[in-house]
Design brief:
Layout (H helix, E strand, L loop, with lengths): L1 H19 L5 H49 L1 H6 L3 H18 L7 H4 L7 H27 L2
Helix pairs in contact: 1-2, 2-6, 4-6
Keywords: Signal
C-alpha cells in the first residue's frame, strides 16, 4: 500500500515540476523532465522488481512444500510395509533396490552389508527411507534453482 502512495506522490510531483518549469529555457526543461522521468521509471522498476521477487520467493516456497509432500507421500508405502518387517522386509528391500537404481545410486542388501546384524532392520529401513527422501528433495531443489535462475 505504501508503494502505491509513493508512486502516486512521485507522479504528482513530476507533473507539478513539469508545469512549473514550462516557461523556462527549453533545453533546461527537457533535461529536468528527462531526469525526473528517469527517476520515476527507476523507482517504478525497483518497486515492481521487489514485488516480483517476493512473489517468486512465495512460489518457490510453495513448490518446495508441495514437492516435499509428494516425496513423503511416495514413501508412505515403505512406512506401511514397515509395520510388519518380518513379513515385508523382502518387499521393502526390493523397493529400495528399485528406488536406488532409478536414482542412479548404489544399493547393497541388508544381509550383504550387515551379516552380523549389528544394525536392526528397523534402523536399516529408516536410514534408507531418509536417504531416498533427502536425495529426491535435493534433486528437486536443484531443479527449482535452475528454473528460477
Amino acid at each position: 500500500m505504501n508503494n502505491y502512495f509513493a508512486q502516486k506522490l512521485i507522479i504528482i510531483s513530476f507533473l507539478l515540476f513539469s508545469f512549473t518549469s514550462f516557461g523556462q529555457n527549453n533545453t533546461d526543461h527537457l533535461d529536468d523532465s528527462e531526469r525526473n522521468w528517469n527517476d520515476l521509471k527507476s523507482y517504478a522498476l525497483k518497486s515492481q522488481l521487489e514485488q516480483l521477487t517476493d512473489n517468486e520467493k512465495y512460489e518457490i516456497l510453495q513448490l518446495r512444500i508441495t514437492l516435499r509432500e509428494f516425496v513423503n507421500k511416495e514413501l508412505e508405502i515403505i512406512e506401511n510395509l514397515s509395520q510388519n518387517l518380518l513379513t515385508n522386509f523382502v518387499i521393502i528391500e526390493d523397493h529400495f533396490r528399485n528406488e536406488f537404481f532409478e536414482l542412479d545410486l548404489h544399493y547393497l542388501d541388508y544381509d550383504d552389508q550387515h551379516p552380523d546384524y549389528k544394525i536392526t532392520k528397523e534402523e536399516w529401513v529408516q536410514f534408507h527411507t531418509e536417504k531416498i527422501k533427502n536425495y529426491k528433495i535435493s534433486l528437486y531443489d536443484i531443479e527449482i534453482e535452475d528454473m528460477y535462475d
